[in-house]
Each structure stands twice: as C-alpha cells, then as structure tokens.
Amino acid sequence: MSNPYFSNSAVFGGKADKDVQRTNAQMDPRFAATTSAQYGATDAASLDSMYNSPAATTADTGRMTYDDVIMKTGGMLAVLVLSGAATWIVAPQLFFVGAIVGLVLGLVNAFKKEPSPVLITLYSIAQGVFLGGISKFYEAAYNGIVFQAVLGTVSVFVVTLFLYRSGKVRVTPKFTRFLLIGMVGYLLFSILNLILVWTGVLDGWGMRGGGLGLIIGLFAVGLAAMSLIVDFDSVAVGVRNGVPAKYAWAAAFGIMVTLVWLYLELLRLLAILRGD
C-alpha cells in the first residue's frame, strides 16, 4: 500500500473482516441474510421478513461512501489552503514548524487504529503552514512556480483517477510490489543525498541537480502517481467491504498524504528545470 494507514488497516484490505461483516449484518437486514450461514440466521420466517423489508441505503447503515470520501478530502484541502495562505501572508518562516508538527501528526494518524477527525484536521493545518511557507520561498526564487506546481498536481490527480476508473491501470500484486520497491529505493536515495548536502560533501541540490536530478524527479512524480492509484483502489475496497462511515476520514487522510508528496516533488522538479 502507498500510505501507512491503508496498509495497516484491516478495513481497507482485500476482504472485509468478520467484525465489519457482523456490523453490516446488524445494520442491514439484506446483508444479514447473505451472512446467515456464518452468523446463524434462525428460520425461514425471519429470512422472509428480511427480504421483504425496505432496502437500506448507505446513509441508513452508516457505511462509507465515495461521497463521504470526496467531502472529507475536499474539506481537508480547504483547511490546508486556508492555513497555507495565512502562513504565506503573515509568517512564511514558520514552514519548519509546520513540517515538524505535520510529520508527527502524520505518523500518529497513520498508525491509529481508529481515525480521529480532530487529529486529521490538525494535520491539514500543519501541512498548510509547511506548504504555505515553503511555497513562498520557492515563489520568491522562481516567479510563477507555485501555480505551475498546483496545476501539475491537479493534472496528475485527474489523469490517474481517469486511468483507474477506466480500468486501463489495475492494482495488481506486481504493481504494488514495484511501487513498494521504488518507494524504499527513493527514500534511501533521498536520505543519502540529504546527508551528503548537510555534511558539505555536495552542494546545491546534491545528486538531485542536473540531468540525474531530472530523472530522479520524474521517477518520484511517477511513484506519487502510482501511489494515488493504489489509494483510489484502497478506497474502492473500503466502500465495497461496507466499512463504517468514520473511515472516510482515514481514506481522505491517505489521499492527502499522497497529494502533499506529489506537490512537493513537482515543486522541486520545476525548480531544478528553472534553476541556473
């Protein structure tokens, strides 16, 4: 999986676990009928009553829907943009604080068993502070680069969503394995490059400058795009499994993590392209 929350959460796995199925059975009589063999529906009269009852909607059963995920993701993006705009105008130098707080809250949210709307919202605020501040510095160095990065992020999101919905790209074990290997390799490369720059062995962008930097940047953007596709698939699995509506917050958080990464990679790639 692309995000720790998706990979660590049973509800976004390939099959709904027994607790999720049992909860769905309690909420929706028709679902209960399909699981009667597992949980002991009693007699023909009970089954007949279940089938004759009105069909329960996702709102009635409290299950996650695509609309839930879209609304939560849109809300988190709005919070991020507002906090980012405020930081850009008032105190862009606070980007480092936002980066640290965002990292801590990201890890906390990623490994929580139950999603926390408050912590996820605070994560969006912290990431807004980070992105707002660092974007201001990039914009000062390269006029118009922020608009280009935002446009690129939206474009990649739309294209990947289209490819996933059309079925042209499928999340297979081979696809996921390649993504995992690529992300681990990219992480190790980034850590090594950062150490070499900090210790003065390399200057500027380090190994991310010049032609190699462009190749690495494009590779990173490709990994982020693949990560988005896996995120979409995880959400689809969650909806198909009928997970509780509260997990829409977790799904939105997972997508936000990938979008922030994608934006930063595009910002860095554009800076390399426009640098001297």
Mind explaining what this structure looks like?
It is built from 13 helices and no strands. Helix 7 (66-90) packs across helix 9 and helix 12 (210-241) packs antiparallel against helix 13. It has one domain (4-274). It is globular, with a radius of gyration of 22 Å. The longest helix has 32 residues, at 210-241. It is 77% helix and 0% strand. The protein has helices spanning 4-8, 18-27, 29-34, 36-39, 44-52, 58-61, 66-90, 95-110, 117-141, 145-166, 173-198, 210-241, 247-274. With 276 residues, the chain is mostly helical.
Short description:
With 276 residues, the protein is mainly alpha-helical.
User: What is the CA-based Rg, rounded?
Assistant: 22 Å
Q: Note the total helix count.
A: 13
Describe the sheet with the most strands: none
Distance between the termini: 37 Å
Q: Could you name the key traits of this structure?
A:
276 residues; mainly alpha; 0% strand; transmembrane helix; BaxI_1-like
SSE map:
Blueprint lengths: L3 H5 L9 H10 L1 H6 L1 H4 L4 H9 L5 H4 L4 H25 L4 H16 L6 H25 L3 H22 L6 H26 L11 H32 L5 H28 L2
